[in-house]
Write a structure and sequence with these properties.
Largest sheet: 6 strands, mixed
Strand content: 15-25%
Helix content: 25-40%
Number of helices: 20
Radius of gyration: 36 Å
Distance between the termini: 89 Å
Amino acid sequence: ANTCAVASAPRSAPRTSSAPRACARVSSATTITLALAMPLRARSTRTARVQARDCLRLSDDVAMAMATTTGGAARARMRLTTGAARASRSPARVVVVRASAKPRALVSVSDKRAMTDLAKGLVDLGYDIVSTGGSAKAIEAAGVAVTSVDAVTGFPEMLDGRVKTLHPGVHGGILAKREDASHMAAIAKHNIDTIDVVCVNLYPFRETVSAGGDFAQCVENIDIGGPAMIRAAAKNHPHVYVVVDPDDYGKLVEHLKSKPSAADDLKFKKMLAWKAFQHCASYDSVVSEYLWSQIGEGAPAPELSVPMTLTAALRYGENPHQPAAVYADGSLAEAAGEGVARSIQHHGKEMSYNNYLDADAAYGCACDYPTSDPTCVIVKHTNPCGIASASGASGDLLEAYRMAVRADPISAFGGIVAFNCTVDADMAREIREFRSPTDGETRMFYEIVIAPSYTPEGLEVLKGKSKTLRILETKPRQGATKSLRQVGGGWLEQASDTLVPEDITFEPVSDVKPTAEQLEALKFAWRAVKHVKSNAITVATTGRLLGMGSGQPNRVNSVRIALEKAGDEAQGAVLASDAFFPFAWGDSVEIACQAGVKAIAHPGGSMRDQDAIDVCNKYGVALVTTGHRHFRH
């Protein structure tokens, strides 16, 4: 035969002994295979670093390299090419194909936070580290032994790094089911070792888009090999730990140190697997969002997914029997990180579901007013009950705050106060000390104060108002954004209502034209009515809301409520409606004119628009149309 035994372990060594046994099959072919084997059930996976120590001339045609492995007894299969040896009588080339003595961890990350700590922790637990590119360099620089992935695959990185881990030597080691004899036989046949930990996170696609990368740069940062490894490891989670979040590195090491029961171990692996699949799903959602933005031409996407990250589990929803939570939107549209869901809470009780809704309504309204005109908004149950700007108080923001309270002090009590400007110490003291106009004694109570910023002293003063007062800080949301709302069995999508008075033309349609002062007051009222639930009416003067009517099934009742709240101050004021007036005579328009309102703004478009004009002409009231409706449901 063309085969001979070169060496073997002592016959007396039991099958479960840790003593290695060695044999070499030598044939007339130009390769031979050398095996240093642990007993099969004692084997764990590792790619050993092998050094050729010595060479023995076996014949004129065959040379064999005597090899040892670093790090203890191991199983190693090597191919020794001897064709060159025949030609040059030089030692044979040794190529590592397989080794297994320790569990292996594959580490390949873009976010390298805590990566070297993880590698050190795993090595201390007996793992060998396999890594790629920059991750391998960083691990090695930290003094941790690491094997490059191309030593595992026997294939170099190619296509500028696009192909590194897409190889059976990696995926076979991840996906093999350890309890399935056919799986284990298959990877053994192809000299593939198992991989027990996969630590991968993905190319910074979102960051590249947010930084303004061009299309080619963004596409180049779409990860391919990373998601493949993550999904493979998550699918085979009974046998593989998959870690995508640097915050979980320490948890993994501690879990392994604790030597968990089989049940606890599987539970932990399932949690990691869920997180891995969600990580890939969120990543793909952002990629899809970006690509559609490049080709969709503003049309609704045929399919849509929105990545969200849990910010907090809330005490309850709108009512105590409803569980609730708040999530941060991870889509590219919200990449600026603005808005109430991402706010910083400096003080007070934890936020509730209703707190978030009210704070969002108040801050959205406040930020709709220009920062050149500092404005205070007070909201109750998502409706603004008080709005005043410094321009309506001779430039005095403190007085503007008082005006906002006086618009409806009963509703303001227990409400949310929002500003579009920095809250300083003077403003904080006014909020802390101001007494309710209803009795002149009771300090105003609020659930939340929200602003884009606070001075250090202002923040400390405000904290002294109450232990429970929630103090929020967040940047205003800028630009057009998408709005999603759930209905039974589906979702509604629309562009957010970002229209402001500067975007439209207030067209006079009556005989009497509004004065410049009345036009400014109409713009203020129209900006306010946008944030009131339909049917919505606001009565205002320059820089100040006097009264509002909200949420009534018919418009005339909203007019009556708004005028009632404005009281005597309705005389000479202006009125804005979120939609056209369906009736005028004996209805909304005539009621407003009879109450002393001197200018009215509505979208127009009713079959009875001429009736509204005729009523205003009869009472000498200016009427303007905006051409835009502001329904809010």
